[in-house]
């Protein structure tokens, strides 16, 4: 089904292609922060700064048994980074809903995208100044950067509907994800080289980490210029006078209330969100727990885990493109269901993987990379077909909030199973239920019917 002729989204194929080329680059821009800062470097670095503050008379590589005082609450230095991420996640789940409602009322969404991105990039770049015992600055900057990243992604994902027709969306979303994995992987490889070879370039370990954090923030800021300038001619449709009279914030709050009330009229959209809640939680838990599983259960060293992270990053680039092609052949929904079946296979292989078998571990990493890029890219494109026209950012805020607000279910399950059984193997295999529930719910989604209800059919 091709809705281009009946849709006001883009005037012609040449304009859509130009806008799509600009749109891709925001995946490239923000993925540098996600990989270098959020995934690899900042949490361990913040922990070392917190240890220096709590135990100033001992090296940071020695266990610190003193506590920090956070708003009068004693906090272990080793728990500061996870707690900060938890607080940031909870805040995102609430704030992003309001951001989505506001974004659909702003006539020039690329400006709003740039505003969120550049504030986030400024916070990410300022992490260079987190040094000594100044853990408080690190906490504040991480929360600001994460909020701005989530807010910018709400606007960015909502633009997908504005720059492509329904027949193009799987391909466009997949290419964006692929470019993101490539860009994030390239900068991460360069930064890991800086950290590993810091002595040869005259830097301490801490200085090398801080330079890497700065590079991620600058990368985010500089490459955001491409989508902001390239999408400046994209406009949201004018709101009715009654809606605009309410004002941006007040009207957005009213619209947000209306969204929750009206969601029941879009049952396929709602079921997809529930499916995404489960299978995305499984995906995120595998991602964040893989290093722990590899180190504690299979006995791999830090250098081996770093190699694995880079391998997954670059394979995910190819995986996103591969699943984009599969979606063109079998349909995006079936391609996602295939990816969830492969995720289950990955977990089964991980359960039986022998200790110290690094070659087999790398093969598993290749499997994760292939399904990681495809499942995430196609989930975004399918959901974009189920959102009501003119309210894209508003509904993508639900998508982002669903991801961030419930992303602790899987990690809680992983931790509880380990605590009860003492086995990380049982913890990893318990995640199968998230993929099974997600696949079952996704199988109940009728994409064609959902598109018709959303006004995209």
Please, what is the CATH homologous superfamily? Answer: MFS general substrate transporter like domains
Output the strand order for the largest sheet: 1-2
Q: How would you spell out the order of helices and strands?
A: HEEHHHHHHHHHHHHHHHH
Structural class: mainly alpha
Number of domains: 1
Q: Report the uncertain regions.
A: 1-10, 240-247
Quote the average pLDDT.
85
Give a count of the beta strands, DSSP E runs of length 2 or more. Answer: 2
**Named CATH architecture:** Up-down Bundle
Indicate the proportion of strand residues.
under 5%
Measured distance between first and last alpha carbons = 8 Å
Helical residues, percent: over 70%
Which descriptors would you attach to this protein?
single chain, 457 residues, mainly alpha, Growth Hormone, Chain: A, two-stranded antiparallel sheet, 17 helices, globular, disordered N terminus, transmembrane helix, ATG22/LtaA_families, Atg22-like
Could you explain the architecture of this structure?
- The protein is mainly α and 457 residues long.
- The chain has a single domain, classed as MFS general substrate transporter like domains (Growth Hormone, Chain: A, Up-down Bundle), CATH 1.20.1250.20.
- It has helices at 13-54, 80-103, 109-126, 135-163, 169-196, 205-230, 241-245, 248-262, 267-297, 302-330, 332-352, 358-384, 392-405, 408-421, 424-429, 432-443, 447-454, and strands spanning 68-70, 73-75.
- It has a two-stranded antiparallel ribbon with strand order 1-2.
- β1 and β2 form a beta hairpin.
- α1 runs antiparallel to α4 (135-163), α9 packs antiparallel against α16 and α10 runs antiparallel to α11.
- It is globular, with a radius of gyration of 22 Å.
- The protein starts with 12 loop residues before the first helix and ends with a helix.
- InterPro entries: Atg22-like, ATG22/LtaA_families, MFS_trans_sf.
